[in-house]
TrEMBL record:
Keywords: Lipid-binding. Coiled coil: none annotated. It holds the Pfam family DegV. Residues 277-306 are annotated as: Disordered. This is DegV family protein with EDD domain. GO terms for molecular function: lipid binding. The keyword Phosphoprotein does not apply. InterPro entries: DegV (IPR003797), DegV_C (IPR043168), DegV_domain_contain (IPR050270).
Length: 306
């Protein structure tokens, strides 16, 4: 049985990885300066960063349509795939998963397994990569889907933004939390848990925030082999500094990716955002899929609004 793996453009997998495993990527749409385009090809990260840096600048995003997914699913099935596994951005943050689910009903639910990663960026990407590697090894559709589920459940995502305003505008975090962050001039460390963006702790400086990202990653990693990814928007030097610190701090780091966030997620976190995603899949696999404990928040957290 041939199993093809599909994801959306917010997974931010390296282009060479997408090509190597034949992963199909369905883009989200981004609207800025009165025009709409596909993430990655029509609208770039740099354009989003420039627009958000202008006072009053606004960028919005929208999910792919069910028709977008139907076209991809049918092309893959017509091209020889027997089954499809489609892994996507958290349904709490976007309607992308729902559009894929609707498309699967039109193509044939027995042919397409649609998964909500309950995560974002390489939190989704690592699950997609696990699925693609399983498919390349000849695994069944059920086994490919299980590989994605286990990795998505184990992966942890932490990030810091310069301002919470962009998350507030996009409805990804409550207005009260955004106002508090601005009033106190704090740098909140955020994470993705149960598919939502939640405040984890508050620090006063950018340097301290980066240090906390490294510490959180180290807490997840322990001394077992892990993969990690560093994301940023218009902050390459800060991202590289974070990557260097992770490489020095995590003794069993097996893979490390550094990439700029695309337009769809970048529109919500804003310029200057940096984050780290840790995938302790080797540990979770040997522990029969047990999920590591979520790190306890230092302060009461406010959940994302739709």
């Amino acid at each position: 049985m041939s199993v093809a793996v599909v994801t959306d453009s917010t997974a931010y997998l390296p282009a060479d990885v997408v090509e190597r495993y034949g992963i199909e990527v369905v883009p989200l749409y981004v609207v800025l300066a009165g025009r709409s385009g596909r993430e990655g090809s029509d609208v770039t990260s740099a354009e989003v960063a420039r627009s958000l840096a202008v006072r009053g600048g606004h960028v919005s995003t929208s999910r792919p349509t069910p028709g977008d997914f139907v076209a991809v699913y049918r092309r893959l099935l017509d091209g020889g795939a027997d089954r499809l596994v489609s892994v996507h951005l958290s349904g709490e943050l976007s309607g992308t998963w729902d559009a894929a689910r609707v498309a699967a009903t039109q193509v044939g639910e027995h042919l397409v397994t649609v998964l909500d990663s309950r995560s974002a960026a390489m939190g989704t990407g690592f699950a997609v990569l696990a699925a693609a590697r399983a498919a390349a090894d000849g695994a069944s559709a059920a086994e490919v889907a299980d590989a994605a589920r286990q990795t998505a459940a184990a992966t942890r995502t932490f990030f810091v933004v310069d301002t919470l305003e962009h998350l507030r505008r996009g409805g990804r975090i409550g207005a009260a939390a955004a106002l508090l962050g601005s009033a106190l001039a704090v740098k909140p460390v955020l994470h993705v848990t149960d598919g939502q963006v939640v405040a984890l702790e508050k620090v006063r400086t950018s340097g301290r925030a980066l240090a906390r990202l490294v510490q959180r990653a180290a807490d997840v990693a322990g001394d077992v082999p892990v993969a990690a990814a560093v994301h940023h928007l218009a902050a390459p030097e800060r991202a590289q500094r974070l990557a260097d610190q992770l490489a020095a701090r995590l003794p069993s780091l097996t893979e490390l990716y550094v990439s700029e966030l695309g337009a769809a997620v970048g529109a919500h976190v804003g310029p200057g955002a940096v984050g780290v995603v840790v995938d302790p899949t080797p540990r979770s696999a040997t522990e029969a899929g047990q999920r590591p404990e979520d790190p306890p928040p230092a302060d009461p957290a406010e959940h994302v609004g739709d």
